[in-house]
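Quick one, T. Sequence first:
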Amino acid sequence: MRVTYRFGPFLDTPVDQVGLEERAARFTKRSIKKDAKVAGLRLAVAICDLTTLEGKDTEGKVRQLCAKAIRPGSGAPSVAAVCVYPNLVPVAREALRGSGVKVAAVATAFPSGQFPLELRLEDVRQTVASGADEIDMVINRRAFLEGDYAAVRDEIEAVKDACGPAHLKVILETGEIGSYDSVRRASFLAMEAGADFIKTSTGKVHPAATMPVTLAMLEAIRDFHWDTGREVGMKPAGGIRTAKEALHYLVMVKESLGEAWLTPRLFRFGASALLNDLLLQLHKEATGRYQSRNDVSLD
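Structure tokens:
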């Protein structure tokens, strides 16, 4: 049953920009050593959405990506999902069969979202019918920036209905919607409308994921959970490239939402470039030696 959320005190107070950025910076000061570091690196692999969203994507490239998703190397677990364009969902579905790795796809006229609503909904329905387990949609930034929040919510609700059994990740494109106040409001709109996850970015706009923006979204998830009891996942996407950064994000999630969110069900990284560095670090922790970057496959 969908929870109906009523905007209230959580949105009445503006986000403290200085305080938010200082809190986010403190998470980068934690020191993680030995077994805890290895556990964090393995978790970061397990919550990656390995992604290819290029005009030059081929069936061969997707199959190769799926093989890496199932067996990344360095003794690491499988990743959470492989994310592709809708026309390549059947290829990914076949390549991942029986692995437990989810098939995710972008939809709703990704990355712009500037198509008529019925076309965007049909995009979702066809993508789910072709085998997608998860849909990554983009919000209508034009409507949001014009202050038509009801339209934004209504469109997300319509996409959620079109998803049927598939999980819905709602991309806010935080680099385009402005302030932390706007990020928080968009987060609540998406969660109220039924999002299973909220996601920072398409990866096509700069800036993409940042720690302060992610923290603003995590705190919105926390407040929404306190008020409704519903758990919503979080996906920072774009710009997270190193294992060190990934560990900082995991600390931030744990201290903001608790260990319950440190699972693929409730937290993902949308950062394909990140996986290779995680594998290099795991190899170094196991052997004491760094591998060459030539020893890991290019994505």
